[in-house]
Input
Amino acid sequence: MTAKIIDGNEIAKRVRAEWKHRVDALQARGVQPGLAVVIVGDNPASQVYVRHKTKACADMGIHSEKHEFPADAPEQKVLDTIARLNANPAIHGILVQLPLPAHFESRRLLEAIAVEKDVDGFNLYNVGALVAGDTVFPPCTPFGVQCMLEYSNIPISGQNVVVVGASNIVGKPMAMMLMKKDATVCITHIKTRDLAQFTILADILVVAVGKPNVITAPMVKTGAVVIDVGINRLPDGRLVGDVDFEAVREKASYITPVPGGVGPMTVTMLLVNTIQSAERFAAIQMPAASKVAAAAG
Ligand code: NAP
Output
């Protein structure tokens, strides 16, 4: 069996085209979705991610602005900026690019973002809402994975899902989201004994560890769907995931490549969350009479 490739670029393009109509509809009503990115320090990877996000916003007609601080900036100065962005009606989404320099308390900054503008979904209220099954903004990377599965018509309900890696950003929210879709979910982590005894049971295997070749072909059930979230730069400069792609693709039914798999979906879901936020703000601001007129027309 050779797996079908789940093309993240292609699905991202389709999702963006669908949501572009919603940006156009908002703009017709005088609302431009707005995203603010707060970045502290000069982590080169973070600078690249922020550039991608800014370009993706521009392509979709979303206003974006970058608030940059040096690594030694006082935390209070960043908190003051977040407070101003919370109060700015032109901004519908705020994200703090992680990781932050060591002397910053990430939690304090993430908690400072207004729940209704927390488009990354990392605020504790949003995390709790995800657990309770009433998500405000699904975290972008697991949301992107769920979207890839749905666009590929891969059933989730009743499937055995194994998530490898238990981070707050990917593994844990991923498990919650797929459990909400009625999958039977197992989360594994660094202390898991004999990882293969779990992964071999997976109908859908999601891997988010950050180590090349954590998953090899003998660890994968024949016909499994394999989603590789990992991004690793090899010494020769190549970018690879966490899965031994060439060997596993001969055993899986579907597989995501790296690059060109989950990566493009993460930025896309950030756009989706920002547009959705702008729609919620517009619905609140629109007086009842004009809501009726809009519904009629
Ligand atoms: P992270 O915070 O470092 O978490 C990695 C998780 O994997 C931790 O729970 C860790 O356990 C666990 N782990 C480490 N070695 C393991 C092993 N041998 N077996 C099972 N679990 C193991 O990383 P992350 O933020 O979740 O990101 C994971 C990977 O995804 C990275 O390569 C990152 O670059 C990539 N990523 C990609 C996207 C995208 O858009 N494609 C988005 C986000 C992240 P401990 O905490 O106990 O060590």
Notes: The radius of gyration is 20 Å.
